[in-house]
Amino acid sequence: MKKARASLKARMRRRAHIRKRLKGTGDRPRLSVFRSARHIYAQIIDDSRGVTYVSASTLSPEIASETTPKSSKCERARAVGRLIAQKAKAAGITRVCFDRGGYKYHGRISSLAEGAREGGLEF
């Protein structure tokens, strides 16, 4: 239990360090990522107005129909990246700044970023 608490504390410290430098604006909102043990969530946020423009996760019906239960977590994360890019383009957003949320840039986080780039987002 103590180890889990310590790793959460360390992630929160890294997250705060990242967020000091990253601010989502109207012309370049922030693509924020949260990763749990089973799912991954992404949302595009304008911090200056405090508004979330679009969001997507592995729980979205579009992802459930696109992936199979045997799909790996990385494949699902890539699909979430493509979906968030598709929704962002429909909302008129093409450029974002990527907020990895204190997680290391590998595995599901990098898969989501690659999927968003495939979908046409620029960051």
What this model shows, in words?
There is one protein chain. By secondary structure, the chain is an alpha+beta fold. Helix content is 45%, strand content 19%. The chain has four helices and four strands; from the N terminus they run αβββααβα. It has helices at 2-21, 61-66, 73-90, 108-118, and strands at 30-35, 40-46, 51-57, 97-99. The protein has a four-stranded mixed beta sheet with strand order 3-2-1-4, with helices on one face. The longest helix has 20 residues, at 2-21. The chain is globular, with a radius of gyration of 14 Å. It starts with a helix and ends in a 5-residue tail after the last helix.
Q: How helix-rich are the residues, as a percent range?
A: 40-55%
How much is the radius of gyration in Å? 14 Å
How far apart the termini lie comes to 37 Å
Low-confidence stretches: none
Number of DSSP strand runs: 4
Number of helices: 4
